[in-house]
Amino acid sequence: MKSKHQLLSKAMKHAKNSSNTIEKFEEVWKERSEAVEQKRIDVKNSAEFKNFMKAAAPQAGAETNGQANSAAHDEDLIMEATGGEVFSLYDPWSKALIKNPVRNKKCGHIYDRDSVMLIITDNIGIRCPVLGCPNRSYIHPAHLV
Fold first, then answer.
1. Which intervals hold domain SP-RING-type (predicted)?
2. What range defines the domain where residue 26 resides?
């Protein structure tokens, strides 16, 4: 659209400079604008497209299997792997770093003790907040290790 706009602007200037009457201007403008509309514009040669492709291309050294492996990890994406298990260092309720971890015996998910105790003492019917957790039972203090 930007390229087409630039071409139409050039056609408008040419029509304005080459005509001395309104009728002549309308005739020249009609010819020029139809020529621009029919012209095929290759956006792959534009600087904006090239810059976008450079920015969207995977960085050198990054893994190709879809995992981001950059020097500056996003804090929300930090995960730890321990013997086949993967868990987040962030509490699912408070979204803060886990300082005092507890594991739910029913589903195996890990929470921060302070935040989970605050929530389950106030609300009896609370389930595991981890998205997709198959555990349908309510969390009780006896379930936390």
1. 73-145
2. 1-54
